[in-house]
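Service request form, structural biology core

Requester: graduate student, group of Dr. S.
Request type: structure prediction, single chain
Budget code: on file
Notes: please return the result as structure tokens.

Sequence provided:
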Amino acid sequence: MTHGSPSPTENETRRTLVEHQLKQSGWDRDQMVDEYTITDGKIMAAGGRPRRGAQLRADYALEYRPGLPIAVVEVKRTSISAADGLEQAKRYAKKLEVPFAYATNGRRIQEFDRGTGLITEIDGYPSPNELWRRYRQAKGLDVPLATDLVLTPFDQSLKNWDNTPKIPRYYQRLAVNKAV
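Core staff response, request fulfilled:
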């Protein structure tokens, strides 16, 4: 990039820098769920006509197995401080009840550990196995049966009206995992 040219957009930062860094740490493309929908948007009745507000979406959810997010990543463009996305990442992690949140501008990465409250600048993302180990520790899943149950995928044979698989909403997934 030459002096005076605009910095990459957030989307360009995600595609060219962040995904590359995640892949270098061992994350497969199917484990990086981009534009991860947390909520569909609040239903508002304005002028007697209901409409939905904006969806709440994390830039990425890192899934150890399909449907099992273990961390969120919030990306800002390179010209903005990574720390500027930290509060947003923390909110998403709290809503999804995942122990780890990352904020990055593609050049710097900040990790927030919800269990300890520590914010640490890191050089690279943890591998899926390392983050899974830390997730299990944070969630108290040191019993093999509990780990097996959490890793069991939801029944994909259940279908919506348009024949797409039923996917539980984040709060339904949380309730099931808590019950387990």
